[in-house]
């Protein structure tokens, strides 16, 4: 008997408070909007997620590309994120094993690198904030355009 695999794709969904989108390791989602109180958990791949006050949790096998965090949106990263934009009152937290590449932190946004996490090629614009905890790693080129940088020793 031949082995089979199922792959799932979800596109263009919008979630309100209490809504949950869960993307498994074989799944993918594109152009999802998470409003305040909504959440997305992923072990697969997502692209183009708008986190408008919601929460995105990226597990170790997950990859989030082209995510925008706004209005208090939060991204918790154990996997990989590329091309993330962090806007006012929003947070990207890179946890142990997490990798963030090509992140842009705008006015009022936070990028936090916890122990075991890595931020590669971050850009921190005026009013954006970058916090690197003891054991966190910055790699590549980190560019600061007037945004403060904090390193916990």
Kindly provide the radius of gyration, computed on alpha-carbon positions and rounded to a whole number of angstroms: 15 Å
Number of domains: 1
| Beta-strand proportion | over 45%
Cα-to-Cα separation, first versus last residue: 56 Å
Provide mean pLDDT, rounded.
Answer: 92
Order of helices and strands: EEEEEEEEEEEEEEEEEEEEEEEE
InterPro entries: AIDA, Autotransporter_pectin_lyase_C
Pfam families: AIDA (PF16168)
How does the SSE layout of this entry go?
Layout: E1 8-11, E2 14-15, E3 20-23, E4 27-30, E5 33-35, E6 39-42, E7 45-47, E8 50-52, E9 55-58, E10 63-65, E11 68-70, E12 74-77, E13 80-82, E14 85-86, E15 91-94, E16 99-101, E17 104-105, E18 110-113, E19 118-120, E20 123-124, E21 129-132, E22 137-139, E23 143-144, E24 149-151
Parallel strand pairs: 1-4, 2-5, 3-6, 4-7, 5-8, 6-9, 7-10, 8-11, 9-12, 10-13, 11-14, 12-15, 13-16, 14-17, 15-18, 16-19, 17-20, 18-21, 19-22, 20-23, 21-24
Q: What keywords describe this structure?
A:
24 strands, globular, eight-stranded parallel beta sheet, mainly beta, 153 residues
């Amino acid at each position: 008997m031949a082995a089979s695999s199922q792959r799932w794709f979800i596109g263009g969904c919008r979630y309100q408070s209490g809504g949950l989108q869960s993307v498994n390791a074989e799944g993918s989602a594109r152009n999802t909007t998470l409003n305040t109180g909504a959440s997305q958990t992923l072990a697969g791949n997502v692209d183009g997620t708008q986190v408008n006050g919601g929460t995105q949790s990226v597990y170790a096998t997950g990859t989030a590309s082209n995510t925008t965090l706004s209005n208090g949106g939060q991204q918790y990263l154990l996997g990989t994120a590329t091309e993330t934009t962090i806007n006012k009152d929003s947070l990207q937290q890179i946890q142990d094993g997490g990798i963030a590449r090509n992140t842009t932190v705008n006015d009022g946004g936070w990028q936090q690198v916890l122990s075991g996490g890595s931020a590669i090629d971050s850009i921190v614009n005026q009013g954006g904030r970058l916090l690197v905890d003891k054991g966190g790693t910055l790699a590549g080129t980190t560019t600061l355009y007037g945004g403060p940088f904090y390193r916990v020793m």
